[in-house]
Amino acid sequence: MLVVVLVYLFAACGRDAKEGSAAQRGGNDAATATGFNGGAAYNYAKAQVDFGPRVPGTPAAKQAGDWIIRQMRARADTVIVQSFTYTTTDGKKLALRNILARFRPDLKERVLYITHWDSRPISESGATEAERKMPVPGANDGASGVGMFVALGDVLKKTRPNVGVDLLFTDGEDYGQFGPPEVDVLIGSKYFAAHLPSPDYKPLYGVLWDMIGDKDLRIPYEMNSFQQAPEVVSRVWQTAADLGYGNVFVQESGGQITDDHIPLLNAGLRVIDVIDLTYPPHHTPHDTMDKISAKALATVGDVATALVTRQ
Length: 311
Prior knowledge:
This protein is of the alpha/beta class. The protein has 10 helices and 10 strands.
């Protein structure tokens, strides 16, 4: 994901759960008021990172995707895997998978949550030439959203949401170049936008959760979201404020960002981006587990849970 236009300070409206020390997890294992557990989310994120960089076409990506499918089949009512082949601009064929975990699939009124599960093949923001050739570990940029979703699945398996909930794990978000022009990026979200679960699929709203594990978490408005789906931004930020997280979900502009919500907005879905892009290890080999925390994941997971479990 890449900032295309940056506007500063604009005020406006076993293997399946590897254990770490309390210090590794950020020291917050207790469940929140909604039942969401930040320590569990951290452990799930670590399980993803432990596979290695989840670059499409690699064994690590295959293993990590299989892991997500297993986790969600153990939690959700229905899991749909969208398997497809994408041909890159240089002719390489990538086998990709979107994973859609559905809770209460019988309900017409639904909320769509999105996160990407792949990680970037190069670290173009690395400090040295050697670093720039390395893949990104993707602890925050990829694994944090996956960890949050699996932990959210723990809650939704026990506490039935008051709407249908779709958790979409997209593949190939971070593969190519964000440009402009965009080349071989947002692949999974573009595929999903063109292959919705049903012809009449129209969730009440959607939220993309990306890079939400930063220890210094601070989430401003993403301005494509603010301009195109302001009522969804208002709903999410008000829920965060009601939960006491107004110092994290701040009422400032974070600029316009090219991310997985854009293809979905273009398809007519009311989807916003929740992202903290002020993250120095972004697109470097230093995007590792020590840079994220259970506390940050608990904060965002609490908001995500409250949105679909509270009237």
